[in-house]
């Protein structure tokens, strides 16, 4: 912060900043987890597009792995994001990004309909390498994410990493769930989860 005063004028100019949006620091971590819910996926769309663009330029990132968790009632609400994920899958030749889509319109995770969807989805993905529902390589889950088990698995995959950046954006219930999970996991040995969030 600095004050500037010009001798010919009595007014003062106050400058402060620059201020950035918290999710812009994702690349500073070796491993980053991006969690977007509802319209909260918007900040991550630009990050994914940037990764796709730099993938065509064969650019490298300090970040070695990005996990994008998209929580949506149905992917049809955000077809534009599906197109961005498809572009990332085509251009991300190094496997930097791993995408998981959680479709929450299925409330009863183990009812007969959801069980059949799981079986069909996993079978189709095993054969074709793509989701039956989205056409993406991204793994589709039915129901809300279990952040504890998801982040714990990521921690197990990257035991050598000191800090994992977690960036969440969406409804307060979701970001609070991520915050609570990070706090619980940080009690244990292993990587420390640094959570940044914004509510929509």
TrEMBL record:
<dbReference type="GO" id="GO:0016175">
    <property type="term" value="F:superoxide-generating NAD(P)H oxidase activity"/>
</dbReference>
<dbReference type="InterPro" id="IPR039261">
    <property type="entry name" value="FNR_nucleotide-bd"/>
</dbReference>
<dbReference type="GO" id="GO:0043020">
    <property type="term" value="C:NADPH oxidase complex"/>
</dbReference>
<dbReference type="Pfam" id="PF08030">
    <property type="entry name" value="NAD_binding_6"/>
</dbReference>
<dbReference type="GO" id="GO:0009886">
    <property type="term" value="P:post-embryonic animal morphogenesis"/>
</dbReference>
<dbReference type="GO" id="GO:0042303">
    <property type="term" value="P:molting cycle"/>
</dbReference>
<keyword id="KW-0560">Oxidoreductase</keyword>
<keyword id="KW-0677">Repeat</keyword>
<keyword id="KW-0521">NADP</keyword>
<keyword id="KW-0812">Transmembrane</keyword>
<keyword id="KW-0325">Glycoprotein</keyword>
<dbReference type="InterPro" id="IPR000778">
    <property type="entry name" value="Cyt_b245_heavy_chain"/>
</dbReference>
<dbReference type="GO" id="GO:0016174">
    <property type="term" value="F:NAD(P)H oxidase H2O2-forming activity"/>
</dbReference>
<protein>
    <submittedName>
        <fullName>Dual oxidase 2-like</fullName>
    </submittedName>
</protein>
<keyword id="KW-0472">Membrane</keyword>
<dbReference type="GO" id="GO:0042554">
    <property type="term" value="P:superoxide anion generation"/>
</dbReference>
<keyword id="KW-0274">FAD</keyword>
<keyword id="KW-0106">Calcium</keyword>
<keyword id="KW-0575">Peroxidase</keyword>
<dbReference type="InterPro" id="IPR013121">
    <property type="entry name" value="Fe_red_NAD-bd_6"/>
</dbReference>
<dbReference type="GO" id="GO:0042742">
    <property type="term" value="P:defense response to bacterium"/>
</dbReference>
<comment type="similarity">
    <text>In the N-terminal section; belongs to the peroxidase family.</text>
</comment>
<dbReference type="GO" id="GO:0004601">
    <property type="term" value="F:peroxidase activity"/>
</dbReference>
<dbReference type="InterPro" id="IPR050369">
    <property type="entry name" value="RBOH/FRE"/>
</dbReference>
<keyword id="KW-1133">Transmembrane helix</keyword>
<keyword id="KW-0285">Flavoprotein</keyword>
């Amino acid at each position: 912060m600095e004050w500037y005063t010009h001798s010919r004028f009595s007014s003062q100019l106050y400058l402060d900043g620059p201020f950035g949006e918290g999710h812009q620091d994702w690349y500073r971590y070796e491993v980053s987890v991006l969690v977007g819910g509802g319209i909260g996926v918007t900040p991550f769309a630009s990050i994914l597009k940037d990764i796709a663009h730099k993938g065509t330029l064969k650019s490298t990132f300090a970040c070695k792995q990005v996990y994008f968790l998209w929580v949506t009632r149905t992917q049809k609400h955000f077809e534009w994001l599906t197109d961005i994920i498809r572009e990332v899958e085509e251009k991300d030749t190094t496997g930097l990004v791993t995408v998981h889509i959680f479709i929450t319109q299925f409330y009863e995770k183990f009812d007969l309909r959801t069980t059949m969807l799981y079986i069909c989805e996993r079978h189709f993905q095993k054969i074709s390498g793509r989701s039956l529902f989205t056409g993406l390589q991204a793994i589709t889950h039915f129901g809300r994410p279990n952040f504890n088990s998801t982040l714990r698995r990521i921690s197990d995959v990257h035991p050598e990493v000191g800090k994992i950046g977690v960036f969440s954006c969406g409804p307060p219930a979701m970001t609070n769930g991520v915050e609570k999970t990070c706090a619980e996991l940080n009690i244990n040995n292993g990587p420390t989860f640094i959570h940044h969030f914004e509510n929509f």
